[in-house]
Amino acid sequence: MKRFITRSIVAVSALGLLVTSLAGCGKKNADANNCAVVGITQEPGIFDPHTVVAAGDEEIIFNVYEGLYKYDHEGNLNPCLATGVEISADASVYTFTIRDGVKFHDGSDLDASDVVYSLKRASGLLDGQDGTALVSELDSIRDVTASSDGKVVVTLESSNSELLSYFTTGIIPENYDNCQQAPVGTGPFKFDSYNPGQSVILKKNENYWQKGLPYLDSVTFKVCADMDAGLTELASGSIDIFPYLTTDRANQLDSSKYNILSNGSNMVQIFALNNSVEPLNDVRVRKAINYAINRKDIISVTMDGAGVELTTAMSPAMGSYYDKSLDGTFDQDIEKAKALLAEAGYENGFDISCTVPSSYLIHVNTAVELASELKAVGINMEIKQVDWATWLDQVYAGRQYDTTVIALTSTYAPYDVLGRYKSTDDGNFINYSNSTVDELLTRIPQTADVNERTALYHQVLGCLTEDACSAYIQDPTTITAVSTRLEGYNVYPMYVQDMSKVKLAGN
Predict the structure, then answer these.
(1) Chain centre distance of CA 43
(2) Which is it for the CA torsion 44, 47, 53, 57, positive or negative?
(3) Going by DSSP bridges, is the β-strand pair 199-204/218-223 parallel, antiparallel, or unpaired?
(4) For the chain, how many helices (H) and strands (E)?
(5) Most buried of 149, 233, 433, 476, CB within 10 angstroms?
């Protein structure tokens, strides 16, 4: 499905990366080499954990880098390179105890100085940096120091009770700044090579701190042109794992050769409306679009029903932070849509375009269905399919578009879901602006009581819905085909390919 994006994304170039001629793991030598091939449909671009922006890159480097904390396949945030954290009563100081016995891929030992360097680099505090955080969520860090007992003390500009989930940011060796060409982390796999347009190869980290892991000697992430190309390679045996399938494609596979695994994705598929272009800068037009579409029909067409309808910018997978009272706000109402368009001066409709990444069938199909439904209220939508690099450059970074269809990823932290709607946030590619939302998003991290924070999140969701800032479609179910020659693969409720526990079946 789409190239799901993270909270911040910029256009990138794949030039200048380390490229070798080493062969990957093919089906013919797979058993002999104890390796696996994962099919991906987005060309990799960034391997630096502090500047990575595309979820397709993050799903690969999840296996290379680790942070102080790390999510598991059930969505739990667990200690990783830290064994624990002490948070001050006002949530302005985080003190981490660093794990002993961890080595980087270059053989050096992890200690507090590496963590200090990494967090300062990520938050823009190193000498020579201009103070702009590479990881925007960490821009509230004022200082990072190592205590005399080897702990790492992170001091914030102000209280932030929502920051722990962002300490999943990758830790790299002190003074190391060549991550793009030669990534070095502490993860279960080491970077081996990148052949643009073809593959990324990772090799087993023999010194991984979690004893016994990983099981595989190598993992190849093989670039496929699109879902159909990936399915062809899956059927031929040249890849072993192919994620983000639609239900109909999964049903076409031989159940004796593939296990079909699924999980909720905690993603938000959005029909993104550029709030700064006419006529989408009119809330009546945006509401009309919301009333004109039938989310259930779209999910049926694009996912064979394997998705959860969304009304606003958060999935119900977020539990209490999600506001159930908003459900059904924009149930399809063609007459109301027409009335709103007439009120806005568009009784005869208008023409608009939808720029969509061509390599993600779910988003292309969604755009086609949306165009059909919008025509009923007089809106003529031209679909423009572009490659992923062009989408990043023109749509996400350049914001030169009318509408687009994409899916937004996040961690299980609610602030990671909604922080992009702050008017100044780099991830606010829909150009949404609401001073009340800005104020609420400023207050949330400063609010210690979880019930009060939940109420503030509900207010933000209410504002986004009242403003109809975009049209939200679904939380798609993640469906992955895994060859029966493998076991131990888990489908995460986030955009991750965790290969650390995958092994040959029966081993």
Answers:
(1) 15
(2) positive
(3) antiparallel
(4) 13, 20
(5) 476
How far apart (Å, rounded) are the C-alpha atoms in residues 104 and 29?
29
Strands (E), 178-278: 189-195, 199-204, 218-223, 241-242, 258-264, 268-273
- In the block, which residue shows the tokens 């013919």? 28
Is CATH 1.10.10.920 correct for 268-476?
no
- pLDDT band per the 50, 70, 90 thresholds, residue 20: very low
Q: What pLDDT digit, counting tens, does each position of 273-323 carry?
A: 999 999 999 999 999 999 999 999 999 998 888 889 999 999 988 888 999
CATH superfamily of 69-168: Dipeptide-binding Protein; Domain 1 (3.90.76.10)
**Under 8 Å between Cβ of 367 and 356:** yes
Which tokens is 97 given?
């105890």
Q: Please say if the pLDDT value at position 3 is more than 50.
A: no
What is the chain's Cα-based Rg?
23
Select from 73, 79, 74 the least CA-distant residue to 209: 79
Among 208, 269, 221, residue whose Cα is nearest residue 47: 221
pTM of the model: 0.76
